[in-house]
Amino acid sequence: MSKALVIGASRGIGLEFVRQYRAAGAQVVATARSEEGLARLRELGASALRLDVADTASAAGLAWQIDGHQFDEVVIVAGVYGPRIAGLQTPSEADFDAVMHTNVLGPMRVLPQLSEALAPGARLAIISSRMGSIGLRSSGSGWLYRASKAAVNSVLKDASLLLQDQAICISLHPGWVRTEMGGEGADIDVATSVAGMRTVLATLKPAHNGGFFNYDGQALAW
Ligand code: NDP
Asked: Which of 21, 67, 122, 198 gives 26 a disulfide partner, CB atoms 3.0 to 4.6 angstroms apart?
C-alpha cells in the first residue's frame, strides 16, 4: 500500500491510522481543522491539509488540495457524538444540525471530490458505527448519533455503487475504542482497532464492495 488519505486525523482513530500508515512506509495525506492537529500530522511525516467537513468553503477546497494524488486507501474518520441522549428526548435543532452536518453531510461533501484521486483498485472506508445498525439494535439510547450513523451507512452504500469501477467501498465499525469519544472504559485501544481495520482494508475483494464490517473483519447487519 503506497499512498493513503485520512480525513479527520487530528487525534483518536484518525491519528492512529496516520501513525500506522507511516510506520508501514506509506505516503500519507491527512486532514485536521486545528493548528495542533496539523502539527501532529506533520510530526508523523504526513502532508497535512486543513479541512473542516462541517464548513462549506473549507470542505469544497479538498479536490484542488489533492489534485494530482492517486490514493490506494482512503479513510473518512471525522465524526462527533453530540449530546448524550438517554431516552425519547427531542434534540435541539443546533445539536441535530451539528451531528448530521459532520457525520452525514461531511462524507457527502468529501466523496464527490475523490473520484479523480483514486488509484486503480483503491479501497475506501467510512468509519461508521455499529450503533448505526438497525438490525443489531437492542437499545434506543443515543438516537441522534445512531440516526446519523444509519444515514451515513446509506451514503456509503450509494457511493459503493456509484464508485464501483474505481474503488471497493465499505463501512467500518472500529469497535468500542478508548479515545476521547469512546472514553476510558471502552473495550479496546486505538492501536488494536486501527490494526484490525487496516487488515480488513488490505484484504478486501470486489465482492466486499458496499459491505459493513467490524474491525475484526466480521460482517455486520445494516
Ligand atoms: P474523537 O472524538 O477522538 O476524534 C474525532 C475526530 O473527528 C477528531 O480528529 C476531530 O477533529 C474530527 N472531527 C470532528 N468534527 C470534525 C469536522 N467538522 N471536520 C473535520 N474533522 C472533524 O473520536 P474517535 O477517534 O473515537 O472517532 C472517530 C470516528 O469513529 C468517528 O466517526 C466516530 O463516530 C467513530 N466511532 C468511534 C467509536 C469509539 O468507540 N471511539 C465507536 C464507533 C464509531 P478535532 O480534533 O478538530 O475536533
From this structure: 21
